Amino acid sequence: MPPGRSRRTNSVGSEFGLIRLLQAQAARPDRQVYRGIGDDAAILKTSANEWTLITTDLLAEGVHFDPATSSYEHIGYRAAIANLSDIAAMGGTPRFMLVAIAIPPTCSTKQIQQLYRGMMRAATPYRVRLVGGDTSASKQGLFLSITLTGTVDPRRALLRSGARVGDRVYVTGTLGDSHAGLGLLTTPRRPTQASLRPAQTRFLLARHHRPSARIAEGRWLLTHGLASAAIDLSDGLTGDLRHICEASGVGAEIFPEALPISPACRAYALARGIDAQQIALQGGEDYELLFTVPRRKQQQFDRLAANTDFCMTCIGSITPKRLGLRLRTEAGVTRTLPVTSYEHFLRPS
């Protein structure tokens, strides 16, 4: 979803302000709830050997997707990945999926079959089974809600709240590719702009239509006890970094020159006359992992990471809360890092 700067258009106000209100309203002690609202997934103490993760995401036509620019199979695929990525961010293993869908009169049976085919193509490599759900009619637009369960080792799930001053900030993969792919689909190219090579276009479209859930990376971080905090990048780096900082009571400093940006995304930025670093900071739905590594575990992290095929890049460090979110250039110049990621109920100004 394209990031937007904040101007309110809904009486509900801020999306995350609303979540905090609901979190406070729902807060009450329960021995079985280890973690409720506030992380990528809830954590329930279901047995002595493993705990249960539960996450859900709602996708609405015209907000999260447009059938004019995405096939129904791609819509289903991305919907499943959004939930799988939440489990990955907790260091968990995905297990079972339920799907609720509200279908408008414009959808055919074939299109709904394609939607489910996409969901299962995303979920099957992780041995996730579809075990139930619900169907309804919709008077306007397609609505799709997936609930996914997973498992995690007791008291070992990766949370947003563990980052501490001095920790290094890392991301998996490359940033901004999905946003660039969406731009190719929705914004016509001006004739004066340079052209991307066909392979670059295919890469960016694939990163938008068929993103990856970093399940293996999340499990690796949890198994070796390397990450102090983690979140998946769904709303964009600036917004999701803010979530970790707020949950952990810290600030962060990001090195813009260190952001991992693919050659295809850089070519797209050049062709569109856009700053590639801004795309990496703002663009959402990459579904990479953003995580922090304590300084005392840095050597262990480097040693173990050298023996993997994972792409993991250090992009900054955790700082005291009073310093807020900042960018620090290689020249040592610092400035405030504005949170420009997408937020529901607000629109671009």
Structural account:
The protein is α+β, with helices and mostly antiparallel strands and 349 residues long. It has two domains: 122 residues, PurM-like, N-terminal domain (60s Ribosomal Protein L30, Chain: A), CATH 3.30.1330.10; 169 residues, Phosphoribosyl-aminoimidazole Synthetase, Chain A, domain 2 (Alpha-Beta Complex). Helices cover 32% and strands 23% of the residues. The protein has ten helices and 13 strands. The strands form two sheets. It has a seven-stranded mixed β-sheet with strand order 8-10-7-11-9-12-13, with helices on both faces. Helix 2 packs parallel to helix 6, helix 4 crosses helix 5 and helix 5 packs across helix 8. The N terminus is likely disordered.
How would you summarize the topology of this molecule?
Layout: H1 15-26, E1 33-35, E2 42-44, E3 51-60, H2 72-89, E4 93-103, H3 109-123, E5 129-137, E6 143-152, E7 168-172, H4 177-186, H5 198-209, H6 215-223, E8 229-232, H7 237-248, E9 251-254, H8 263-272, H9 276-282, E10 289-293, H10 298-305, E11 312-319, E12 325-328, E13 334-336
Parallel strand pairs: 4-5, 9-12
Antiparallel strand pairs: 1-2, 2-3, 3-6, 4-6, 7-10, 7-11, 8-10, 9-11, 12-13
Helix pairs in contact: 2-3, 2-6, 4-5, 5-8
Brief overview:
The chain has ten helices and 13 strands.
Which features characterize this protein?
single chain, 349 residues, alpha+beta, 60s Ribosomal Protein L30, Chain: A, Phosphoribosyl-aminoimidazole Synthetase, Chain A, domain 2, 2 domains, seven-stranded mixed beta sheet, 10 helices, globular
